[in-house]
Amino acid sequence: MRSISLLYIFILVHILSATHAQDSPQTPYWIVKQICIEGIQITREHIVRREIPIQESDTLDPQNIPALVRNIRSNLLNASIFNFVNVKFDTLGPGQLKLIVSVIERWYIWPYPIFEIADRNFNAWWRARNLARLNYGINLIWFNFRGRRETLSLFTRLGYDHKVALSWNIPYVNKKRKTGLYFGVSTGGTHEVAIRTDSSNTVHFIKNEKHYLKTEQQLWLTLSYRPAIHTTHNLGLAWNWYQARDTLLLINPFYGPTRVSYPGLFYQIKIDYRDYKHYPLEGWYTDLMIEKWGIAGWGENAPTNVKTEANARYYINLGKNLYGAAGWYGSFQSGQRPPYPLISGLGYGRYFVRGYEYYVVEGNRLTTLRINLKYALLPPKVIQLPYIKTEKFAKVHYAFYLNAFTDGGYAGAWKTTQPARLNNRLLYSAGLGLDFVTYYDKVLRIEYTVNHLGEAGIFLHFIASI
């Protein structure tokens, strides 16, 4: 940043001198004569250039240079193939600039050991502390495959849930680097399944040690189109199968058909201007997705639902190590209530109201609003670990943030079902937390939350809250 500041001062002096010498002042522009990329070993140069919004021979307004430097750095970090990115401009002569981008690549082949919980979240598992509800295995991931930002994954999981999956994400398949493909296949089974959600919004399970209670398979293909750096369109098609044992209907007659197969089609648009997508502090993000389950005449006992969901998130730097954020999520699902294994609600995935981690609030009309105020207790810091030669592991960044937050949410029950205790009413909570952020996109959140029921607890999460 020091070199950028000196360059900026030099440019302003040049502007003032030129303006004083001319009777008819003109706005000076600088020409980008050269772009130099340093540090890439596997990554193809065109992958880096795709994230840089300027080219050689472009002209720049000197007042826009600091913002441009920040944007280039954010774009490359959000590509998730570099641990560190440094961007600067050097002068080559009067009115001429050289852009220098220096990167440190990530380690690209990871045989991730799988040791994970089978519940909706860590807190739901920790409440029961049932070691039988653990998964183990290995997920072999090759990031930045072929140096083209591709991801190749072979997933093998045993334990509570069994699953084998193979997928390949190719962000660019054409010369203009705007169109991509993502495809894969998976198969699996489980000895224990969720059988029903009671009137207190608690999920109940049933287990069979000898046989799978449910098996499922999926085949999917997604076409992506990225016309600009910050905008992506996805169009996806999937075929889904699952088969459950008929004995489940004896316990819950509303479980739904035990043999289901159906195609699914979705369209999604994402606009992303976050500075660092895994833990944003500035910028904004929004997406919209429309998903159609089932096509007439295709599949067996296929659902016919249409689901629309949207996200909007905003992040602001308030100064003096203070940051604010707000995030909204909403979804609406039309059609008949789907079979129990396909029902969604607050409590699945990342969509829940903090303080209600132990509950599932199912419905076809969902919304949440989250507001965060955070203080950088220890702003991002970089250290060099001794005795480690490779920079992919030796150079580490980390930060700590204190949080104060409040959440609100609502889940409207399906008209054909009896509302549970937490349905059709406002859910709200507040709390304090501590976030730890480090390299390879790792986030750990520890939060103390109180909900509207007066219940309080300490909860752990492993992604950013908004």
Describe the structure.
The protein is mainly beta and 466 residues long. The protein folds into two domains: 2-105, Ubiquitin-like (UB roll) (Roll); 109-461, Porin. The protein is built from six helices and 24 strands. The strands form four sheets. It has a 16-stranded antiparallel β-sheet. A four-stranded mixed β-sheet has the order 2-1-4-3. It is globular and about 80 Å long. The model is unreliable at 1-26 (pLDDT under 50).
How many domains, in number, for the residues?
2
What class would the helix/strand composition place it in?
Answer: mainly beta
Strand composition percent: over 45%
CATH class of the largest domain: Mainly Beta
Runs in which pLDDT lies below 50 for 5 or more consecutive residues are 1-26
CATH architecture of the largest domain: Beta Barrel
CATH superfamily assignment of the largest domain?
A: membrane protein fhac: a member of the omp85/tpsb transporter family
Radius of gyration from CA coordinates: 25 Å
Question: In a nutshell, what does this entry contain?
Answer:
24% of the residues are buried. The chain has helices at residues 2-21, 45-49, 65-77, 122-128, 248-251, 391-394, and strands at residues 30-38, 59-60, 82-93, 96-105, 109-117, 134-145, 150-159, 161-170, 179-190, 192-197, 203-207, 214-228, 231-244, 259-272, 283-293, 306-319, 322-334, 345-346, 361-362, 365-384, 395-412, 427-438, 442-451, 456-461. With 466 residues, the chain is mainly β.
